[in-house]
Amino acid sequence: EDTAARRLVLWSLLFFAVWSAASPLSTTLPLFLVLWLMRSVTQSQDGEHWHDGRSLDTLPPLIMDHLWLFLMLAVGFAVLRLLQLLLLPVIACRLLPKVRAGLDVPLWHWRAQVASIKLRWATAASLELADASIQASYFRLLGARVGRGTTMSEQTLLPDTLTIGKGCFFASANTMTSVKVDQGRMRVPHMTHIKDGCFLGNQNHIAEGIQENTFVGLRTWVPTMPEDGGSLFGNPAMKFGRPPAAEGTAIGTVPQKVWHHFSTSIIDVFFWRILHSCFTGVALIVGRLVFPEYSGQWWPLEFVAEVAIFAALSVLTWLLVPVGFSNLIYNDRMPLSAPYYSTVITRWFNVNKIRRVFTKPLRTSGSFWDATMLRLIGVHVGKRFFSPNDDVMIDPPFGRLGDDVTVDYDGQVRQHSFEDDVLKWGPFRVGNNANIGQAAMVAMSECADDVSLLRGSVTWKGQVLEAGVYEGAPAAPVDEDFNFANGA
Question: Smallest Cα–Cα separation from 412: which of 375, 450, 457?
Fold first, then answer.
């Protein structure tokens, strides 16, 4: 037994050492590959000693004469990086040993490390695909069992232990695994089995599974398999009644379906990454045109000027694409209700992906400029707004915030619901002097003036919050004698 234990420890340490060395290399491999190819081209055209001149930062004549190669470099890196992000999880999930339900091992055990790799890589790839129509097919490549007619956005998952039935619809940011990490051990107590016809809203956690035709709302925790189906919401999950779904909302014409698949799986997955890389290439080209080489005396100032060029083009890119173009195709003049295959939905998906790829050039959260940045993307913001978060408003064009509104860490305001294959928007208003606590969410609800939503609380869809303090999921008024200083 001692020999077997020592062998297990050695194998686990070896696996950890190999993985620690390979992981950083895997993230930089596309860049090294593209640079190696360009280096080979320049050496074959200009010889091996082009860098021995007297000037600093001199590029090979072939590159200076064909600056468009910078665009090829940037695009090549973006494509290779994306392919790596999507293909490596498939290889890992298929080649590494299966993770079985009932796993209970120390964190240093090689099986725990395998489970961690699969969980992390599969989740990262799913996040990259976002709302792509190929998301379910990609889950199958990872090894998960997914039924026909199932549609989903990005999820957190362990593919080996996940089974999904037919005709399900999952919105974004759900967790579908029973993995537990506690007291230095990793446990996978159950398979996760989601049966036919289920709906998951956002940020729910399904551990063991749910029965057929179960509706799970927002930020709902379902730790065990329920005895029957129904509608669940809250933490702990409670049942509630809801009207039956309308017929025909997911039926689209052939052109609508073709455009939906092309837009979500080609444009959103590849085009926006490539476009972003092109702007990086343009910045390199402009820098080389303005400063083809650094002089020996003024090179520090020239370097600072070139950095300023990169910064200016980064701001300009953000103003053109995530602000200008996105506001053109996604604004509060859009219909407040749209079926699944409508172009309203694909435009919404486009903008969500654009703003994920083209991030803000400046971190303004927690500063005076945060309200200005929110106004640029369509939010109606009152005076003296404050939040340390980057993504306060989930649906910016329909956001309405009064004066003196404070949103604490991880708090959010949600303006849409996506049930029964129909997207519905507000707008809903958050009144003056409102305070949204840590990880709290105002979800499709109206808030009057002087509302305080305590940490971790979530409102009902359509709920109207009068002045006062609210707590829970779903949020309910707190007794009048509640001490806010002690409870917040």
Answer: 457
Asked if 432 and 405 touch (Cβ cutoff 8 Å), the reply is yes
pLDDT for 65: 72
Confidence of residue 36 (pLDDT cuts 50, 70, 90): low
The string of pLDDT tens digits covering residues 169-193 is 999 999 999 999 999 999 999 999 9
Residue 43 has pLDDT above 70, yes or no: no
Check pLDDT > 50 for residue 486: no
CB neighbours of residue 471 within 10 Å:
19
The pLDDT of residue 488: 43
> What is the phi/psi pair of residue 155, to 5°?
-140, 160
Among residues 266, 283, 262, 263, the alpha carbon closest in space to that of 274 is found at 266
The whole-angstrom separation of Cα 255 and Cα 403 is 45
Locate the DSSP E strands across 47-147. Answer: 103-106, 145-146
Strand order across the 428-430 sheet: 380-381, 399-401, 428-430, 446-447, 464-465
* DSSP structural state of residue 396: G
Q: Among 22, 263, 328, which Cα is nearest to 131's? A: 263
What is the mean pLDDT of the segment spanning 454-480? 90
Average pLDDT over residues 276-295: 83
Q: Residue 248 has what pLDDT?
A: 52
CATH topology of domain 363-487: UDP N-Acetylglucosamine Acyltransferase; domain 1 (2.160.10)
At 150, the amino acid letter reads T
Determine contact, residues 371/377, Cβ cutoff 8 Å: no
The token duo for 79 is: 């494509």
Ramachandran sector of residue 108 (left: φ over 0; alpha: ψ -120 to 50; beta: rest): alpha
The sign of the dihedral angle between the CA atoms of 200, 205, 209, 211 is: negative
150: three-class secondary structure by DSSP: coil
Query: Using CA atoms, how far apart are residues 312 and 361, in angstroms rounded to an integer?
Result: 9
Q: Tell me: the pLDDT tens digits for 397-450?
A: 999 999 999 999 999 999 999 888 899 988 899 999 999 999 999 999 999 999
**CATH code, residues 99-240:** 2.160.10.10
**Residue 94: other Cβ atoms inside 10 A:** 12
Same fold, 99-240 and 363-487: yes
Q: Where are the domains of the chain?
A: 99-240, 256-361, 363-487
Q: How many CB atoms lie within 10 A of CB 268?
A: 26
| Residue 110, phi then psi, degrees to nearest 5 | -65, -30
